[in-house]
Write a structure and sequence with these properties.
Layout: E1 2-7, E2 11-12, E3 23-27, E4 36-40, E5 43-44, E6 58-65, E7 74-77, H1 79-84, E8 86-87, H2 88-91, E9 98-99, E10 106-110, E11 112-121, E12 124-129, E13 135-141, E14 145-154, E15 160-165, E16 170-173, E17 183-188, H3 195-201, E18 203-204, E19 210-214, E20 221-222
Parallel strand pairs: 1-17, 2-20, 6-10, 7-11, 8-20
Antiparallel strand pairs: 1-14, 2-3, 3-10, 4-5, 4-17, 6-15, 9-18, 11-14, 12-13, 12-19, 15-16
């Protein structure tokens, strides 16, 4: 069975995790009643899981367990992920900001998985003033960039993928999927309420008078 985690946005801390076997991704909760949708062979899971990621800056471990229960280690960044994800320097060429790790609602720690870009399209960014958050009237469009990132896990018999809080509580596990399912998609959502959180609240070090806000779909961003 293939399990795919679909990240609708996120701050991908590639630079911060350089040399490590994992990748951390900063995430924000949506305004809706749930932050996760699950599909089994293309069909939504019924009843839908009512999962909220939490907003206390907690770590959520994304783990691929072998049949003997050990956690597999080591992520792979596929060529499309490296090429297509939005880079900080594309918005701030002379004043690259840093991720404010403590600003995120939660930090997803991917211990393994193959990272691939998805949903390529241009993004439209509005320039806003830092002191009052009002638009200046200036804007720019990016190249075609990834608006989703897929993380793939191929499970052998007896293996499991799970999302687990640091306190040991499982948010979701592939063990809940009905037998015979070949493909599972776990989509972590983002909506318009998270735009300013990703691109204003969770990046720092911008010394200029402006920041840039996507309209209306916040794409993932990495640290380069």
């Amino acid at each position: 069975m293939r399990v795919t985690i679909n990240l609708d946005s996120g701050g991908f801390m590639v630079d911060e995790c350089l040399g490590e076997p994992h990748i951390d991704v900063g995430y924000f909760e949506t305004a809706g009643p749930h932050d996760v949708e699950v599909f089994e062979d293309g069909q939504p899971t019924l009843p839908p899981p009512e999962i909220k990621l939490g907003n206390r800056n907690e770590r959520i471990d994304v783990q691929h367990l072998a049949a003997n229960g050990t956690v597999k280690s080591g992520v792979r960044q596929l060529a499309s992920f490296k090429k297509d994800i939005l880079k900080k320097r594309e918005i701030y060429p002379t004043d690259k900001p840093v991720f404010i790790v403590t600003a995120y609602d939660c930090i997803l720690k991917f211990h393994s998985g193959k990272f691939q870009s998805s949903n390529l399209k241009r993004a439209h960014f509005k320039e806003c003033r830092l002191h009052d958050d009002q638009e200046t009237g200036n804007s720019n469009r990016t190249r075609r960039i990834a608006h989703d990132v897929l993380v793939h896990f191929d499970l052998a018999s007896g293996e499991e993928v799970r999302l687990r809080r640091a306190n040991g509580t499982n948010l979701w596990s592939s063990s809940s999927i009905k037998p015979g399912t070949k493909a599972v998609e776990v989509k972590l959502l983002a909506d318009a309420t998270t735009d300013s959180k990703y691109f204003r609240k969770a990046i720092g070090g911008v010394t200029g008078a402006h920041y840039h806000l996507p309209n209306p779909d916040p794409p993932p961003m990495n640290g380069h």
